[in-house]
Specification:
Helix content is 66%, strand content 0%. It contains 13 helices and no strands. Helix 6 runs parallel beside helix 9.
């Protein structure tokens, strides 16, 4: 953060433009920025591009959002809002509550995979704070001590984030109808297997046409149910491990 940003504080502490009926809102600007990133990639996001979409002058938008850092903070907070479970819909039991939040978070990452890297390190905003509050609500009645509650939230978050990154990376490598990257990967793998140094991979692929074996492996890796199975395993482990701790 620049010295100037530190002096004037976070965008959340600044009042929105004081017109009686402002033409735009910060939330509206953030939503348009997200739509651009979804359609064209984060690199396409700029104040000029947003202004074009809104039919406004670029300098007009600087009246609402002064810096790129502020715009990114608004985008992050708009995405955080989409993760929140609707009021009254969060289960009271810790396990289904954590499951619900994890699914909501994962779906948001899948809708906006560019955010996994492009918005990393962005300042925390009000909706991110609400997400943290909701997460602590999820484990409020869990039979864990305080360390166990923090561990549970962190472990689930790490799993969601890590799995989303892996899926996004796979999708990027296999983007579009161009099969050449996959063919190149398989060719390299076959060359390595020919050395005899990888007997377990050979065993997994098994006998028969190699193309079908690689296709089966790809299906296993891209199975959409794997995230849910992994989440259940993690929740099973949390329940088995942390419920043994005495509450403090």
């Amino acid at each position: 953060m620049s010295t100037r940003d530190q002096r004037r504080g976070l965008i959340w502490s600044e009042r929105a433009p004081g017109e009686r009926k402002p033409k735009f809102t910060r939330e509206q600007i953030a939503k348009v920025a997200i739509e651009i990133a979804d359609a064209e990639g984060f690199e396409a996001v700029s104040m000029r591009r947003i202004a074009d979409e809104l039919g406004a002058g670029t300098m007009t938008l600087y009246h609402y959002v002064r810096t790129k850092e502020d715009l990114m903070a608004l985008m992050e907070d708009e995405l955080a809002a989409s993760i929140l479970v609707a009021p009254g819909e969060l289960p009271t039991e810790w396990r289904p509550a954590l499951h619900r939040i994890a699914i909501s978070s994962y779906r948001a990452f899948m809708r906006h995979p560019w955010a996994l890297t492009s918005l990393r390190g962005v300042r925390v905003g009000p909706n991110a704070m609400r997400h943290v509050e909701q997460s602590f609500m999820a484990v409020a009645n869990a039979p864990f001590d305080q360390q166990g509650k923090v561990d549970a939230l962190g472990i689930v978050d790490d799993y969601v984030f890590g799995h989303a990154i892996r899926v996004a990376e796979n999708a990027e490598q296999l983007d579009g109808d161009d099969a050449r990257p996959m063919r190149a990967m398989i060719k390299f793998a076959e060359q390595m297997l020919a050395t005899g140094e990888f007997p377990q991979i050979e065993k997994f692929l098994g006998p028969g046409p190699r193309t079908q074996a690689w296709e089966k492996f790809a299906r296993f890796m891209n199975d959409t149910g794997r995230f849910l199975r992994g989440l259940d395993v993690i929740l099973d482990g949390l329940e088995a491990r942390f419920t043994q701790r005495p509450k403090k």
